[in-house]
Prior knowledge:
By secondary structure, this protein is α+β, with helices and mostly antiparallel strands. The protein contains 5 helices and 11 strands; from the N terminus they run αβββαββββαββαββα.
Amino acid sequence: MKGFILLALAVFAALQKQADTAACTCTTMKWVNCEGSSPNCACKITLDDGYRESIDCEKLIPKCFLMKAEMFRRRIGQDVRLNIGGKPNEHAIIDNDGIYDPECDSNGNFKAKQCNKTEECWCVNSAGVRRTDKGDKNMNCSKLVETFMVRLELTHKEVKSDSKVNVEALQNSVRNLLQTRYQVDPKLVKEVQYDPDGRYIVIDIEKEKGDRTVNLGNMAYYMEKDLKVSPLFSNQTAVQLNGGSQKLDLNKIVVYYVDEERPTITMQHLTGGIIAVIVVVVLVVVFGLLALFFINRKRQQRYSKTRNGESNN
Ligand SMILES: *[C@@H]1O[C@H](CO)[C@@H](O)[C@H](O)[C@H]1NC(C)=O
């Protein structure tokens, strides 16, 4: 009997061990191949043809690696961005350019100068967002400027008109989501505001200036992907918030980036539409002035002709 129990325990222990050494998956990234078996997993992300970078799947994967991997997947035809508008301050910038093929250092940080493999270059912040005007390939970006604050503007889908969103429950739910899903230290969440009419949830995340241990661009990128495309996490569960008596599905996100130094980008707030209107107005004024000028000249010519005619008589 004793022998049998021991045997059963041994079998159980062996099964347990087998369960522990399960195949490796990368929880924070779906497009990753892992070798070995846990806890000795070696996971690598493919950044380019034959170029794979080792990554730590316990953490969010650096945005620079993610963008590079996405550009590679696009090139080989595998997989995929949108925008609306409140700046946290006048120097906040939005990513209007979309994705490009970035240059990353070995830690997954963006290089300060990015050229998207073309002759046209620009300087980016630590979140990889353009913060200067574009220039040629001799452009000088002396250092990578850190993004120390992000404002996330989320919109949730419509809820039944009879159930009101409980703001406190929502705020708690936001903080909880940020911590569990995006590994954001709750200390960094400065404010969570809610506007029931616009169904806006505005989240301010801010770290100390000078802090280089946390990268706010990474978490913002994961969230953008969650809401605009599909989750980057291997577990594809959708993001949901709790509004007290109901679950809230999110459908839009705008991210504002505030850097330790003010950006030198010009006309950032002028969207394509406004620029088009300005161009049209300027053209109308110029054509109007030209037309007036020619009409006047014609009149003067005709006037002098008739006067000449008179003197001949
Ligand atoms: C970078 O280049 C790709 C094509 O190679 C293009 O689709 C993309 O829009 C470019 N991105 C920027 C920000 O210029």
